[in-house]
Amino acid sequence: MAWVYLTIAGLLEVAWAFTMKQSDGFTRPLDTALTAVFALSSFALLAMAMRSLPLGTAYMIWTGIGAVGAFIVGIVVLGEAATLPRLIAAGLILAGIVTMKLSH
């Protein structure tokens, strides 16, 4: 179950990063509230995953899912640039996530 909690926690990290962007500096109440709910839920699930996963593994995968996920949402939803250097960087993060999972 720890890996399921960790995956959902990572996806919720993407959600809170997106709603934080949409909150326009916490000036939009609904997006601000969603940011808080998603962030707290993400932290809670991360904590649950850490009951049985090592700190380094759990935290690295959680932040990696969040970073790559937010990168993808930025490109697909917000129209951010998908330059070659940015794609390579995201690919390296993804490779790190896969390597960490395989090494556990």
Automatic annotation (TrEMBL):
Tell me which Gene Ontology terms the entry assigns under biological process.
Answer: xenobiotic detoxification by transmembrane export across the plasma membrane
Q: Which GO terms describe its cellular component?
A: plasma membrane
The record's section on SUPFAM superfamilies has: Multidrug resistance efflux transporter EmrE
Localized where?
Answer: Cell membrane
List the molecular function annotations (GO) for this entry. transmembrane transporter activity
Q: Tell me which InterPro entries the record gives.
A: EmrE-like, Small_drug/metabolite_transptr, Small_multidrug_res
List the keywords (alphabetical).
Answer: Cell membrane, Membrane, Transmembrane, Transmembrane helix, Transport
Q: Describe its membrane topology.
A: Multi-pass membrane protein
For this protein, the parts annotated as crossing the membrane are 33-50, 57-78, 84-102
Q: Which PANTHER family match?
A: GUANIDINIUM EXPORTER (PTHR30561:SF0), SMR FAMILY PROTON-DEPENDENT DRUG EFFLUX TRANSPORTER SUGE (PTHR30561)
Query: Belongs to which family?
Result: Belongs to the drug/metabolite transporter (DMT) superfamily. Small multidrug resistance (SMR) (TC 2.A.7.1) family. Gdx/SugE subfamily.
Instruction: Specify the protein name.
Output: Guanidinium exporter
What is the scientific name of the source organism? Celeribacter baekdonensis B30
